Amino acid sequence: MHLSDIEIAGQCRMKPIAEIASKLGVMPEELELYGTYKAKLSDSLIRRVADRPDGKLVLVTAVNPTPAGEGKTTTTVGLGMGMKKIGKNAIIALREPSLGPVFGMKGGAAGGGYAQVVPMEDINLHFTGDMHAITAANNLLCAMLDNHLQQGNALGIDPRRVLIKRCMDMNDRALRHVNVGLGGKVNGVPREDGFQITVASEVMAILCLADDLADLKKRLGDMLVAYDYSGAPVWARQLSAEGAMAVLLRDAIKPNLVQTLENTPALMHGGPFANIAHGCNSVRATRLGLKLADYAITEAGFGSDLGAEKFMDIKCHYGGIKPDCVVIVATVRALKYNGGAQKKDLARDDMEALGKGLVNLGAHIDNMQRFHVPVVVAINVFETDTQHEIHAVSAYCKEKNAEFALSDAFSEGGRGAEALALKVVDACEQPNNFAPLYDVKQPIDKKIRAIAAQIYGAADVAYTPAAKKSIAEIEKLDKGNLPICMAKTQYSLSDNPNLLGRPVNFVLNVREVRLNAGAGFIVALAGDIMTMPGLPKVPAACSIDVDESGHITGLF
Predict the structure, then answer these.
(1) pLDDT at site 419
(2) Within 10 Å of residue 174's Cβ, how many Cβ atoms?
(3) How far apart (Å, rounded) are the C-alpha atoms in residues 484 and 396?
(4) For the chain, which residues score pLDDT lower than 50?
(5) What distance in Å separates the CA atoms of residue 127 and residue 135, rounded to the nearest whole number?
(6) What is the pLDDT of residue 110?
(7) Distance CA 196, CA 337 (A)
(8) What is d(CA 187, CA 182) in angstroms, rounded to the nearest whole number?
(9) How many whole angstroms from its chain centre is CA 340?
(10) Nearest 5°: phi and psi at 227?
(11) Cα–Cα separations (whole angstroms), residue 129 to 17, 28, 34, 165, 462
């Protein structure tokens, strides 16, 4: 009988988080407890360890996934536990889950099977309240802007050119486009508005890229919130919002400490999506992990074309870090899907589809090698995989001169990732000439084209008139020298989710360009991508319940 993730997690013997922290050298006064099994790590700890040498940084990414996801977090967690099995001092650094996917379709972000971070119920639900703090800070800014309009609009803000949107940490398509200020004069100035999911908000990105509280407050003040009637920009600092927003985020900026099923320490902090945001956990958590352990293992969302590219070109840029090794998670299922197999047929033996889909793995290997960092392919094993399917993937890795290892952390925990851990340790000792894909000082169009051509394989880039106008406005504001954050589908290397495998001769269509000046990047939206997801026909929420004793069921 197969146990569910929550049943497996329920059998775990967690250690008090104070004990986990103590083994990392964290002093009791540097630990802010949230119950027995989770805690925040203080600013005083970050300052105390700042001068320590860094450990090795391992980035985990993946091929383009199937709609069900393919176990990147599970592999990350398993690798951390596998490192412990081979006698290495490792810590993992993950993103926090969003309630939207938890109650929607994708599920949580705590790993799976015997490679999970715990307490998984807390992590997948309200955790330490970071998501709620980010939501509140974002919506405070929105409320202050609308109040400014109501109270005389001294800044001359054009209600038709308000850029900041409200947010909530839940999938709700009905809130994508709304009207506010209705019901008469006392209820505000009527205007069109909308919501985005919290993890797509600029406030989330700012929290994840800020160095410290002072930098956080500066970045919040730098947010471009609107234009006035003359076309001049209006910044959050002009509304005097950044101080109060920072107050709401004072605790949220501190990294969270939890553990794996095998008691390996795990940092979880921040949670931007990779298809609509930059897809990496916080710079503060990753930096701290490098100071507390010999190996810090982190992940970037979705495939290498999304999260990993942004990790290299955005997070490394602001964090002053570089990976010592990149792990690309590949599954037979995902490769068959990229070769044309239907989702319902992925468990069937299909060498023809697998053969066609292997080029997708090749694209991701090429992508990561462009950053001149050692690459290891983790073949994440599913029980439905056949030996000749696994052999085909292994043979392809050899053809690409890529190191590889099988990983079965889902079924075996750390023991199932020992081979992968050994490969990663070897890779971390190889020559590393890390370099970003582009120079941030290049024009916006040139940076977008570099990503489109070199990472996606696009033949050209097409812009809507609105996107061209936005690029001109951003460059007029002298903000063109920022990294690019591409927003596109995760299911394809292109902007069309139906173009699977390794598309060629396609045009990347950029329909909108936004300046996230506080976060420090420019968002280019390609294809039909929503920043407020909707729920599926049968949401996961329909199967989640709690009994009179507080026992949760249905949470994976």
Answers:
(1) 98
(2) 10
(3) 32
(4) none
(5) 14
(6) 85
(7) 30
(8) 6
(9) 27
(10) -120, 150
(11) 18, 22, 10, 21, 41
